Amino acid sequence: MSQHTREEIVNSMPRTGFFGHPKGLFTLMITEFWERFSYYGMKAILVYYLYYSVKDGGFGLPDALALQIVSIYGAMIYMSGVVGAWLADRIIGTRKAILYGAILIMIGHILLSLPNNFTLLLVALLFIILGTGLLKPNISSNVGEIYEKNDPKVDAAFTLFVMSINLGAFISPLIVGWLQKNAGFHYGFAVAAVGMFFGLIIYVLRAKPTLGLSGLDIPNPITPEDKKKTITYVTVIVIAFVIYFLFAQLTGNLNLQSFMSLVTALGIGLPAVYFIMMFVSKKTTSEEKSRVAAYIPLFLASVVFWSIQEQGSTILAAFADKNTQLDLAKVTNGAINFVIPPAWFQSLNPLFIVTLAPLFAWLWVKLGRFNPPTVVKFSIALFLAGFSYVVMVYPLTHNGDALMNPAWLVLSYLLVTMAELCLSPTGLSVTTKLAPSAFASQMMSIWFLANTVAQLFNGQVLVKYYDTVNNATYFGNIGMVTIGLGIVLLIVSPFMKRFMKGIH
């Protein structure tokens, strides 16, 4: 199959119409807005849906199991992105990947909006996992494809694109959370389904006239030889899964916990395999291997950070619901008569990102030659993330059994968002810089898999720990350990700098 050149793709689209950008940018932005609207809206109430009693519209699961399921679900979302990117790159192209992904996501949300059935819930989550894996990585890559390689507007385009993501993530918990509290869970899930329906319709109607040829080509078509290898690998994997499930059935271990253990093994094994491939490959030079070695501590640091950040939709979400004073009349001495839906706290992270990102971008430029190197920024991120938990200890130890003032929880979300702004953009940048030339895409996959490992760690370790200790002990210990790891990273930074071979 012949491939279109970048020039042909760019010339096939209307060039202006959205703040001087191609019209296709608005198509991708609005599609991604609604996808993120549906995803974050659903995720804001998912943990409550699992542990709320049946009479309150939930399933009445134990808190720890509910938190575990949400963590494993989040991990599988990031794992599916690796498969979705491969399918688009080798078999179906980004246009079809986005379309199929949107359809699967919408089906998942529709299933969630139906009456309570736990099997149906798991099937719905599977649809959303598969759909997000197809849509999320490929819609981002499609943004870059609608511009010339050296077009100065590309950075601005991605800034607008990220703004659409955060706008959807900010608005959806407010709407879905209010509906869940005042009308019921299924109304909240239905709104998420409607949101993805809007995104799908807009994409179907606008893709052809505004995106031209972009996303239609298969970037790296699978060859007959690769196809045979892929079929062999998939067959082996399927057989291994069948054997595993048969063995689990015969031994009486075919349950949710055994499945989560399997996902954990895969999630941890995948980045490990990628690292081993880079070290043993003849395509990797000795200098590149040194840089990969320097990247491993950064990968582990990002796992620690994302572990805390992702608890915003699990442990902190449960804490907001059960241990935070949500009745503002009791906080403001009757000045404000309003009860905060607990899901609203999920809007804080995107709100702070939108407001603080320009400030951090300005700060790094303003610092000039005093701009901290990558490892130091990672250390600062761990300090801030750890401190976001440590600040919770004071109100928890001084208020007795009283519900905590919500301002403390807002402060915690603010600190961890500041940490994210130190680590996330820097991590993306350093990943591309330290990647071996033959493994650039795999290195980027490793960066996103750090989030997978973090959520698996949450689900298998931290959720269980949280269930066995009081809140002050949990937040204090996890916060101090994170700060301690930030100090360790700072101490070893001179050694890492030598291994990075000129990359800062």
UniProtKB/TrEMBL annotation:
Bilayer topology term: Multi-pass membrane protein
An example molecular function term from Gene Ontology annotations: peptide:proton symporter activity
* Record's keyword terms, sorted: Cell membrane, Membrane, Transmembrane, Transmembrane helix, Transport
A Gene Ontology annotation in the biological process aspect, one of them, is:
tripeptide transmembrane transport
Gene Ontology CC entries for this record: plasma membrane
The main place the protein resides is membrane
State where the protein is found.
Answer: Cell membrane; Membrane
Q: Which residues cross the membrane?
A: 37-54, 66-88, 97-112, 118-135, 156-179, 185-205, 230-247, 259-280, 292-309, 343-363, 375-394, 406-423, 435-454, 474-496
UniProt-listed Pfam families:
PTR2
Which intervals hold domain Major facilitator superfamily (MFS) profile? 1-211
| Signal peptide positions (record) | none
**What family does the Swiss-Prot or TrEMBL record give for this protein?**
Belongs to the major facilitator superfamily. Proton-dependent oligopeptide transporter (POT/PTR) (TC 2.A.17) family.
Q: What is this protein called?
A: Di-tripeptide permease homolog
